[in-house]
Amino acid sequence: MENEKKVLKELKYIETKRDLKKKYKPKKTSKNKKKVNKLIYIILTFIFFLLFFILILSLFNKPKIFATTNYNNKNATEKKIELLKLMTNNNILLYKGAHNCLLNDIETNYCIYKFICPKKVLGKNRILLGEKGDGSYVLLDDFENIKIAYSFGLGGNLKFDDELAKRNIDVFMYDHTINKLPHENARFHWKKIGIAGENEKNDQLKTLKDLIIENGHSAEKNMILKIDVECSEWDVFYTMSDDILMQFKYITIEFHFYDAKKEQIYYHVLKKLAKNHQVFYFRCNGRKNVAKFGNNRICWLLEISYIIKKDNRFAKDDSIYPIYELDFPGPNLDNEINMNIVKLFDDEFPL
């Protein structure tokens, strides 16, 4: 009896052990499930390496100017504000000059840059009149029907005026700071008179309108206007009428962006000029007249050349500035002057 109990007990133990082993025995994975798991692993690995590659690529492909901003994710209005804030924070302004003046009005600064974006004039090429250096200016190779030019601010340099005279253009020249011309030419008509705006004229200073009437040129069209009068250009153009401006096919000006208090005058003048004339070239006058923008520099003293919009067609200007065939000879510092920053406005935003 005891043996039977003992045998039954052993059998029960064996059955229990077998049941437990069966219960906790790992189930075999099907072949299909193995394939699915392997596929998921491959996909996740691919995604990981793809994201890693994108991250590495982005580190080496940041926008040169907007590397520290999320500029490219913004809409047009936000981009404009971001760009101007970035420029303001880096002291990148057209007229960071002797008094370290900064423009605080973002909208005005944006418009100032926008008004001076150059365009290519279709069918016409830019040429330098005069030798490279101060006193020469850039126009186009089209002087058809041009007989008269007005030249203000001469000093001792007549390179530009000489080139006009070679093209049989009579040059009416004005500078009240000199006593005589460095040399004479049958095409030169000089007077010891300066130019001023309507509110500043006196015995020594006259408006352009007064001089045009005095010379009998009120009915003339297709004239050339050159002005280099050391900061007085703003007052001259501020009160000048559109009718007077429309008499000139070409206008070339040296602009001095010195005083932030005049930001609204800058805006008004550049807007007026942009109404009927198009910028086709600009350059920095002098290597020292630049402000830093990261590793780049931008000029706050600009020579700007305009052509009348009427009867001309324009396209985007893909030139890389400065253009050394037309600009000053450039040591290392000149190569750092990045005039192309201004052109961003033309690429990004319609006016």
Describe this structure in words.
Mean pLDDT is 76; it is low at 61-72, 88-105, 292-296 and 330-337. 37% of the residues lie in helices and 20% in strands. The protein has a single domain, classed as Rossmann fold (3-Layer(aba) Sandwich), CATH 3.40.50. By secondary structure, it is an alpha/beta fold.
Please describe the topology of this protein:
Layout: H1 2-24, H2 31-60, H3 76-89, H4 106-115, E1 119-121, E2 126-129, E3 137-140, E4 148-152, H5 159-166, E5 170-174, E6 188-191, E7 194-195, E8 205-206, H6 208-214, E9 223-227, H7 233-238, H8 242-245, E10 248-256, H9 263-276, E11 277-284, E12 290-293, E13 296-299, E14 301-308, E15 314-316, H10 332-335, H11 340-348
Parallel strand pairs: 4-5, 4-9, 5-6, 7-8, 9-10
Antiparallel strand pairs: 1-15, 2-3, 10-14, 11-14, 12-13
Helix pairs in contact: 3-4, 4-9
The ordered H/E elements are: HHHHEEEEHEEEEHEHHEHEEEEEHH
CATH fold name: Rossmann fold
Strand content: 15-25%
Percent of residues in helices: 25-40%
- Please identify the top-level CATH class: Alpha Beta
Q: What descriptive keywords fit this protein?
A:
single chain, 351 residues, alpha/beta, Rossmann fold, seven-stranded mixed beta sheet, two-stranded antiparallel ribbon, 20% strand, elongated
Quickly describe the structure.
With 351 residues, this protein is α/β, with parallel strands linked by helices. It has helices at residues 2-24, 31-60, 76-89, 106-115, 159-166, 208-214, 233-238, 242-245, 263-276, 332-335, 340-348; strands at 119-121, 126-129, 137-140, 148-152, 170-174, 188-191, 194-195, 205-206, 223-227, 248-256, 277-284, 290-293, 296-299, 301-308, 314-316. The longest helix is centred in the N-terminal third of the chain and has 30 residues, at 31-60.
